[in-house]
Amino acid sequence: MKRILFVAAVAVGLMALIDGVISPGYFPKSLAKIFLFLALPIAAGGIKANPGSFLKVSGKREIITSVILGVGVYLSILGVYSVLSPYLDLDRIRALLGEQLGVVRDNFILVAIYISFANSLLEEFFFRGFLFLGLLRKTTRSNAYFISAGIFALYHLAILKGWFSPLIFALSMIGLFVGGLIFNKLNERNGNILSSWLVHMMANLAINTIGLMMFGIL
User: Fold this and answer.
1) How many Å apart are CA 187 and CA 54, to the nearest integer?
2) What is the pLDDT of residues 166-177, one digit of tens each?
3) Predicted confidence band at 159 (pLDDT cuts at 50, 70, 90)?
4) Closest CA to 103 of 119, 88, 87
5) How is residue 161 annotated by DSSP?
6) What does the DSSP 8-state code read for residue 165?
7) Smallest Cα–Cα separation from 46: which of 138, 168, 162, 176?
8) Closest Cα to residue 181, out of 204, 201, 152?
9) In 140-168, which positions are buried (b, 16+ CB within 10 angstroms) versus exposed (e)?
10) What is the 3-state secondary structure (H, E, C) of 20-77?
11) Residue among 51, 54, 44 at smallest CA distance from 6
12) Mean pLDDT of the chain
């Protein structure tokens, strides 16, 4: 358990430094994230199973259920956005994306594709495959749930810094924590990260749909 938590602290701490202080641009940041969230856990011996086994499924029902849940999450995020959009400073968010990450209208579609499919898989491998399923073997079920979901939410602090008002920022953190618990439940029930990846992918697609509207692409 100590090894898992140490690797998680190092990886998330360094990513917070990269996101909140260094701000090297989105693609250099993504390369660092691949090393910290994929290569480091494997090199540290924190992955006992074959990493490919995390994507194995038991049947079609598992995938269908995950897709239905993912569509529900997609629609829910867009619904919440429609309610909160008057309270969001989209010009500020757009400016921060350009200043901190180099994400602008011209490259947003490429970034959105990466976030939806590759970045979501990378985060599921780290936060659920490595952290949650690893902790589930080492500590109590409740500890595994709350520690992994808590670290998942905290990881986004540096990313979302300055984007929202304090209230919306707090709601975002709560949503990320609850989302982490839901992803954990899917992992525990199915013994893989494919189900949570599909739902995570749909959540990111919803956020990217909002981004496409924000940049005037849709």
Assistant:
1) 9
2) 999 999 999 999
3) confident
4) 119
5) T
6) -
7) 138
8) 152
9) eeeebbbbbbebbbebbbbebeeebeeee
10) HHHCCCHHHHHHHHHHHHHHHHHHCCCCCCCHHHHHCCCCHHHHHHHHHHHHHHHHHH
11) 44
12) 90
What's the whole-model pTM score?
A: 0.91
Structure tokens at 192: 């893989």
Closest among 210, 209, 205 to 117, alpha carbons compared: 205
Count other C-beta atoms under 10 Å from residue 126's C-beta. 28
Quick: pLDDT tens for 122-135.
Answer: 999 999 989 998 89
Share of the chain above pLDDT 70, in %: 96
- Cα–Cα distances in Å, from 39 out to 5, 42, 101? 16, 5, 23
Give the pLDDT score at 37. 95
For the cut 60, the answer to whether the pLDDT of residue 104 exceeds it is yes
Of 217, 216, 211, 192, the C-alpha closest to 78 is 211
pLDDT by residue (tens digit) across 107-122? 999 999 999 999 999 9
Residue 99 tokens read as: 């200043």
Q: Which amino acid is present at 144?
A: A
The one-letter amino acid code at 98 reads G
Q: How far is CA 69 from CA 60, 178, 185, 195, 198, in A?
A: 14, 14, 13, 9, 9
Matching residue, tokens 């949650």 = 132
Give the separation between CA 77 and CA 137, rounded to whole angstroms.
Answer: 33
